[in-house]
Specification:
The complex is a heterodimer of chains A (480) and B (138).
Chain A lengths: L5 E4 L2 E4 L9 E4 L2 H9 L2 H8 L5 E12 L6 E7 L5 E2 L11 E10 L7 H11 L15 H10 L1 H6 L5 H4 L18 H8 L11 E10 L2 H7 L5 E8 L2 H21 L12 E2 L3 H36 L3 H4 L2 E7 L1 E10 L2 E10 L2 E2 L18 E4 L7 E5 L2 H6 L3 E2 L9 H8 L4 H7 L3 E4 L4 H4 L8 H11 L3 E13 L1
Parallel strand pairs in A: 3-4, 18-19
Antiparallel strand pairs in A: 1-2, 2-3, 4-5, 5-13, 6-10, 7-9, 7-11, 8-9, 8-19, 12-13, 14-17, 15-16, 16-19
Helix pairs in contact in A: 3-10, 4-10, 7-9, 9-10
Chain B lengths: L2 E5 L5 E7 L2 H17 L8 E8 L3 H19 L1 E12 L2 E10 L13 E2 L5 E5 L2 E9 L1
Antiparallel strand pairs in B: 1-2, 2-8, 3-5, 4-5, 6-8, 7-8
The chains are: A alpha+beta (480), B alpha+beta (138).
Chain lengths: 480, 138
């Protein structure tokens, strides 16, 4: 059954409030995207989110929206502190899945001749795929608890990176309010062996070329230039976060009944923000978010190590520094304007990126005149984008924008498309070297399995909820 | 005949299991999870473990059973390949599983499963036997 939807302008659509909906839906998409979305129930999920108690403003969907568990992926929803709820389904299993971008002093032409050796070294030094971990990183329980509170700072304090890295991470690399007492032994156990691992599926590590600069002033502020080598890391909180989500879904199933919350979908289970269950989830979620910040920080250290090993150059020469690190699966307390009044709200971003405007106090000082950097990965064969946040995003989407390309083919369908193709050779012909741990990964992650991310960021730019700065092309791809 | 198949989904994957008995249904779902993670690889091993999980209904119990098996794979690198279900009520499952403990460097997985979800979760019986549907997050 198709969801009733009205066009507002070229790339904004309204889902009218009806039935149990407490607010309307607002979808950023092209006409073609809407036709596809009607087929896969993602719009139904936008409506379901609109039924949750205490939602403020519309239930929002970004142009990379696709079907998720409970909330759609690409969904943004704000909740009132007194009337509203928090839902693990509004964050997702991979808590603080996110993206980190490193710039370098190297032109990509220096990398191409050593690409194979570099790919092998990165693949060896950065654990990826199931069961893989660094033999030189063994965590004791107390150390893991420190990771959960300190996030990226724990890694820096233990020699994995520099204090300067922390200046360019969302929330400084540690969400406050993390309480390891509220995390299960099982989550601790799953996390211990997986800190400093890339994971699998759509997670990746890429060495890229800055292929095109669209906003020279912002690019200069971000330290980006055409032909430069960059590195993107896309991963999250691994088994630790999955377990925290799983544990709290069980708790929230009971809490939803306890607080009399009617749910159109069991995966939307939630609890009032002020309830013990809601508070406990936020404190456990913060632990997982901090685990993910530490994870990306450790991987950054091993990326630097790999470049030093292969090029024989030191850190001063390579200058692999963090441009920014964003979360795209998170729930956070933020201040936003509602009907002209500033209000504290709990913003759920599930497959959506914070995109604060120029001048916002939470944007690092270095970037305050251009807006917060936003990192949008694409597929392994085409490109990724760097954007900055805008005023319009702040006012229309609670300072949020898209997060990636979004799948369009199931894994089975992707394998059908891949059959008869030598994907590695086809990528090599485009100048891309790939290494993958999982036996099905390359076929299931073919570029055709994803929307063209250029279309996604095109909608974002046209709607004014993000401004494109640069396009990055993959040169080395490491997948789990 | 007791069997299973995978369900198509854009972002993730589902399992549909069918069996003559409820016990058989839970065994088929477990085998499907193994194939999803390891492909057609065959596992042996004689190490035996006890599993005891509780749920609020049969669907919840199925999610918790598969979650337990996933936890053993991910944390202990233990792949259960034989399943002997001793007790199965809508609220509790007790089973003995036998399998193989792999070396973490030697998992050779096809793909990683993050979690077993409640989305479109369904366990039903009819005159032809039992059917279950469960989706996983990849």
């Amino acid at each position: 059954m198709s969801v009733p939807i009205q066009r507002i302008d070229a790339c904004r659509w309204r889902i009218p409030k009806e039935g149990a909906m407490r607010t309307e839906g607002l979808v950023f998409a092209t006409k073609e995207m809407i036709a596809f979305l009607q087929k896969e129930q993602a719009l139904e999920q936008v409506r379901n989110v609109a039924t949750l108690p205490g939602i403020v403003g519309p239930s929002i969907a970004m142009p990379d929206i696709h079907w998720g568990y409970g909330f759609p992926i690409g969904g943004v929803a704000a909740f009132d502190p007194d009337e509203g709820v928090v839902s693990p389904g509004g964050v997702g299993y991979d808590i603080n899945c996110g993206v980190r971008l490193l710039r370098s002093a190297l032109p990509i032409e220096e990398i191409r001749p050593i690409a194979k050796r570099l790919a092998d070294t990165l693949f060896r030094n950065v654990p990826s795929g199931i069961g893989s971990c660094r033999k030189d990183l063994k965590l004791l329980v107390q150390q893991e608890r420190n990771v959960l509170v300190q996030g990226a700072r724990w890694a820096v304090d233990h020699g994995f990176g520099t204090k300067e890295d922390l200046l360019h991470i969302e929330e400084g690399g540690a969400l406050s309010g993390a309480d390891p007492e509220l995390v299960s032994d099982r989550a601790m156990e799953r996390g211990r062996a997986q800190l400093g691992t890339l994971g699998s599926g759509n997670h990746f590590l890429e060495v890229q070329e800055v292929e095109e600069i669209q906003d020279p002033q912002a690019a200069e502020s971000l330290g980006l230039f055409k032909g430069q080598m960059t590195v993107t890391i896309h991963t999250g909180s691994r088994g630790f976060g999955y377990q925290v989500c799983d544990d709290y879904l069980h708790i929230m199933q009971k809490a939803s009944r306890k607080y009399g919350i009617d749910l159109p979908d069991r995966q939307l289970c939630c609890a009032p923000l002020g309830s013990p269950e809601g508070q406990q989830y936020l404190a456990a979620m913060a632990c997982a978010a901090n685990f993910a910040f530490a994870n990306r920080q450790l991987i950054t250290a091993w990326v630097r190590e790999s470049f030093e090993q292969v090029t024989g150059r030191g850190p001063e020469d390579l200058r692999l520094s963090v441009i920014y690190d964003v979360c795209h699966n998170i729930a956070k307390w933020e201040r936003h304007l509602v009907d002209g009044q500033e209000k504290r709200l709990c913003i759920h971003r599930k497959g959506a990126t914070r995109a604060f405007p120029p001048g916002h106090p939470e944007t690092p000082e270095l970037y305050r005149h251009i807006g917060q950097p936003v990192l949008i990965p694409g597929d392994m064969g085409r490109y990724s984008y760097v954007l900055v946040g805008t005023e319009k995003a702040y006012h229309q989407t609670f300072g949020s924008t898209c997060h990636g390309a979004g799948r369009v083919l199931s894994r089975h369908a992707a394998k059908r498309v891949a059959r008869g193709h030598n994907i590695e050779a086809e990528l090599a012909a485009k100048g891309i070297t790939i290494r993958a741990a999982g036996r099905a990964t390359i076929a299931e992650e073919i570029p055709e399995a994803y929307k063209d991310v250029m279309e996604v960021v095109g909608v974002v730019q046209q709607a004014g909820i993000g401004r494109i700065v640069a396009r990055l092309k993959p040169v080395i791809v490491i997948k789990g | 005949m007791d069997t299973y198949r995978f369900l198509e989904h854009t972002a993730d994957m589902g399992i549909e299991a069918t069996a003559a008995s409820l016990e058989g249904l839970f065994v088929q779902a477990a085998r499907a999870l193994n194939e999803m993670i390891f492909g057609q690889e065959l596992f042996g091993g004689s190490e035996s473990l006890q599993i005891d999980v509780s749920g609020e209904d049969l669907g919840d119990l199925l999610v918790r059973w598969l979650t337990e098996l996933l936890y053993l794979i991910e944390t202990d690198y233990f792949v259960a390949s034989r399943f002997m279900i001793d007790t199965l009520t809508p609220y509790r499952l007790q089973a003995r599983v036998a399998g193989e403990r792999l070396h973490p460097d030697n998992m050779h997985a096809v793909r990683e499963v993050k979690a077993i979800t409640y989305h479109r979760l369904d366990v039903t019986s009819s005159s032809r036997g039992w059917r279950a549907q469960v989706y996983v997050d990849l």
